[in-house]
Amino acid sequence: MNVISTRQLSKSYGTTVALRDLDLEVRPGEVYxxxxxxxxxxxxxxxxxxxxxxxxxxxxxLFGAHMSPRLRGxxxxxxxxxxLYDRLTGAxxxxxxxxxxxHPDLSEALRLAKRxxxxxxxxxxxxxxxxxxxxxxxxxFAHRPELVILDEPASGLDPLAxxxxxxxxxxxxxxxxxxxxxxxxxxxxxxxxDRVGILLAGRLVVEDTVTSLKANAVRELTFTFxxxxxxxxxxxxxxxxxxxxxxxxxxRCRVTGAVGELVRTAxxxxxxxxxxxxxxxxxxxxHYTEEHSDDD
Length: 296
Description:
Blueprint lengths: L3 E10 L2 E7 L2 E2 L4 E5 L6 H8 L7 E6 L6 H4 L2 E4 L11 H12 L5 H9 L13 H13 L5 E5 L7 H16 L3 E5 L3 H7 L2 E6 L2 E7 H6 L3 E7 L14 E8 L2 E6 L4 H7 L4 E7 L3 H11 L5
Parallel strand pairs: 4-8, 4-9, 6-7, 7-8
Antiparallel strand pairs: 1-2, 1-3, 1-5, 9-10, 11-13, 11-14, 12-13
C-alpha cells in the first residue's frame, strides 16, 4: 500500500490551472523529491495533500484512506511560508504544537533541536531565518509522524545544518518513515531523494529515480584525436543526438543511453583522450524545463 496516492488530482483558481491530473504515488520508506520552477504546482500539491485546500477534481488517499482527523496525527508538515508566534520561545511553541496534537512528549523534538544547534529558550522573534526554519523542521518531526511533508525544508539553513538535517532525514526513513518534499535546491534533491518528480505548468512531466534520470540524460563526450577527423564520422550512431566539430582534431558529441558504439567508433581513429561531462540533476531539470516550455 502506498503512503500517498493521487488520481487525476487537479486544482484551479478561476481560469488559472495550478495543477493538472496529477497521478502521484509515494511508497513507504522512501524520500520523494518534487522539483519544479515557481508556479509549477509544488506548494499546491502539498497543501492539497494535507487538506488545507480542496481539489477541483481528482482524489487523494493517504495510508490507503481519505483524509480525516485521525490521519492528520500521522503526518508532519513544514509549510513554505512558516508563521510563528513571536512572543513564544521555541520551547513554548513546540509545547503549544504538542498540545494541539495531543502529543505532549517533546523528547524527539529536543533531540532534533540539539542536533540542529537550535536554542529553544529564545523567543521566535529573536531568531534568524535559518533558526526559524530549524524550529519549523523540529515541529514537523516532534510527534514522530509516519509521513512528513516538507515545503522547501533547506531554505535558510547553513551548510552544516543542512548536512545534519539530511543525515536525520535518512535515519528517519531507515526507521520506517516516509518523506515527500519540494525544493529548489537541486543538489539537496540529488543528495537525499530516492525518487524525483518534475512538475512543470501543473503537470508531472517525468518521474524516476535519480540514478535512472542521470543514466538517460543527455551527456557530452569530447574526443581528441591525433589527426583531423570529420564530425560526420559519428552521425547515425545510436544515441548520438549531435556531433560537433570543435576543431580539426576534436569532436564533441551529445549522447543519451549507452555509449559503447560511440566509443568503439572513436577507437577506429587515433584517439588521444576522452572527456565526459556527466549530467547532474540541474542539467536534467533544465533539459525538461526547456523541452516543455511551450506548455506554460
